[in-house]
Amino acid sequence: MRHVRSIWNGAISFGLVSIPIKLVNATENHAISFRQIHTEDGGRIRYRKICELEDREVTSAEIGKGYEDADGTIIPITDEDLAHLPLPTAKTIEIVAFVPADRIDPLQMDAAYYLQVGGAPAAKPYTLLREALKRSHKVAIAKYALRGRERLGMLRVVGDAIAMHGLLWPDEVRAPEGVAPDTDVTVRDKELDLADALMDTLGEVDLESLHDEYREAVEEVVAAKAAGETPPESPAPSSSGKVLDLMAALENSVRAAQQSRGEPDGKAEAEVRHLPPRKQTPKQQTDTKKSTSKTAATKKSTTARSTAKKTTASKTATAKKTTAKSTTAKSTTAKKPQPKKATPRKRTA
Q1: The pLDDT of residue 285
Q2: How far apart are CA 116 and CA 138, in angstroms?
Q3: What residues are paired with 155 via a beta bridge?
Q4: Hey, which residues does 315 pair with through a beta bridge?
Q5: Neighbour count for residue 87 (Cβ, 10 Å)
Q6: How far apart are CA 167 and CA 107, in angstroms?
Q7: Contact between 128 and 49 (Cβ < 8 Å)
Q8: How far apart (Å, rounded) are the C-alpha atoms in residues 292 and 300?
Q9: Helix, strand or coil, per DSSP, at residue 18
Q10: How large is the average pLDDT for residues 272-283?
Q11: Is the pTM higher than 0.85?
Q12: Which residues contact 333 (CB under 8 A, 6 or more apart)?
């Protein structure tokens, strides 16, 4: 880290132990920066710093700090005033506590710095603090002053060095009010299973393999225009309409992820069947038992009604058959021919 310029010099206060250190930036920005130009002739647009009282441009050496009061009065504040603030953290990173790393909300994370040892005498206490953090599996919470304000920080071990992440104060993190959906949404287990299958298919990634494709595309455009060539055209966006069927979208996503990884084009349903069953809470188990009991009772009631209907229908059919036989018998009896009476013969004389 010797080639990196330090932005702050001070010491770590670890109880009665003082560790001289230098603060250096742990990150760097690779974004492409642009200049503002006049679109008609390409001339540079510059901002000039003008003194309102003298109506003239001033240099950076003539510019200082000032606090504007409520009535508009400007109160000059010098670097010497800030250097003599009555704060123990003005030149010291004061460790106030050690907590588990999962106690820190990622929303509080800010800029990252490396704490570089400040000279040979500081090597032993620096190493002591580093090894203590390693063995405890904790991070140190500290307070320090930088760029005109007191800040909160988190010290942790990175390799053989100690890094410090600036933290936002808890009251600087907004509550997520009005962000989550305000409508009741029911997510089925099958949908969760497909989401799990998609997550398993995508798997993990080597962060070292990720890079800034936007920056590369901008560099290609700049290079093409500098050479007098036509900039490359962006690929046509995929026609992704409004998602109406969530299950179909999840299944298609699983298949697409499988194809991108060179896996066999299996159905998403097959992936879901191999997922372990989800554990149910006591309440869910009770609800399941109630639902099962209701279903069994409903089936039993339905079966009983069906049997009763069949019995009634059978009785009705039997009664109809009996009535039909009786009617047929009566009809037969009525139509049976009667024997004819004999006619007496007449005697002749």
Answers
A1: 53
A2: 20
A3: 140, 164
A4: none
A5: 14
A6: 9
A7: no
A8: 12
A9: strand
A10: 48
A11: no
A12: none
The per-residue pLDDT for range 103-137, each reduced to its tens digit, is 999 999 999 999 999 889 899 999 999 999 999 99
Q: What is the pLDDT of residue 126?
A: 95
The DSSP secondary structure of 36-76, one letter per residue, reads -B-TTT-PBP----EETTTTEE--GGG--EEEE-TTS-EEE
Contact 48, 57 (CB under 8 A): yes
Q: Which two tokens stand for residue 82?
A: 């800030």
Cβ atoms of residues 20 and 119 within 8 Å: yes
How many Cα atoms sit within 13 Å of 68 on the Cβ side? 2
Q: Which helix (H) or strand (E) holds 12?
A: strand 8-14
Q: Strand 138-146 and strand 92-100: pairing?
A: antiparallel
d(C-alpha 43, C-alpha 128), whole Å: 57
- Residue count of the chain: 349
CA distance 304 to 291: 20
Give DSSP secondary structure letters for 203-233: ----GGG---HHHHHHHHHHHHHHTTPPPPP
* DSSP structure string for 97-147: EEEEGGGS-GGGEEEEEEEEE-SGGGHHHHHHHHHHHHHHTEEEEEEEEET
What is the number of other CB atoms lying within 10 angstroms of the CB of residue 251? 19
Helix axes 189-202, 246-260, angle to 10 degrees: 20
Cα 334 from Cα 15, distance rounded (Å): 125
